[in-house]
Give the backbone structure.
Amino acid sequence: MQVKCNYCGALIDDSCETCPKCGAPLSGAHRTAKGQPKTIEELKDWYTAHHLPPEEITRFFIGKDIREPKAFGIYRDGNGDFVVYKNKSTGERAIRYQGSDEQYAVNELYQRLKAEIADQKGNRPANTTQQPPAKKKKKKGCLIAIIIFVALSILAAIFDNSAPNGYYNYKGTQYYHQNSSWYYYDREKDDWFPSTEEIDIDDKNAKDYQIINHEGKDFESTSWYDSGNHSDDSGWDSDSDWDSGSDSWDSGGTDWDSDW
């Protein structure tokens, strides 16, 4: 379906986020980072939001032309083509895709990355330590575990002074607080990014900084948004979250001799 650009009047596809003629943003356009990424930038966001180890460990380089052996990657070359590649253990490069279709190129690496995550999770060493059965103490052990869990939950509630999730205006910058993380709004890029600043806001003074109306892009439309707390965001793929440290990722077990 084609729509008219409000700025230059050109007829363009409604799937575009910006007008290819004048570069103006399209009203109603939104990124699809909640679900499957379609651009290199969205794939970067997806990678970060799923808590994956650094690229030097996973060997997946998004937006980079890495020439070292044992590397997957995607980048845009000088001719404007999107290149998806795999460098084998010998250093030989296998090109998976090269062309102008960014969405197709991103999907190729995205699917390979998801498969690698599944393999890494499946290859984690199992705990083989044998524990002696304790049938007589089973009920007692369960009761103790429940008591400990309840006690820890109560203590966490008492000592949790973090600010509620939501939008804040702090020292002239707009922030969004989500669980234990802060994100700031970049006006020039009209997007949200993780903050490294020290934000002095907690539940005691949160009302002094909270805002209802914010400018620019909704934080809920970014890949940083945690859909685990929102039932209307079923597109988020929580199965791909990496819940272990970097040490548990072993890229040495990847098949580096195949073309893909």
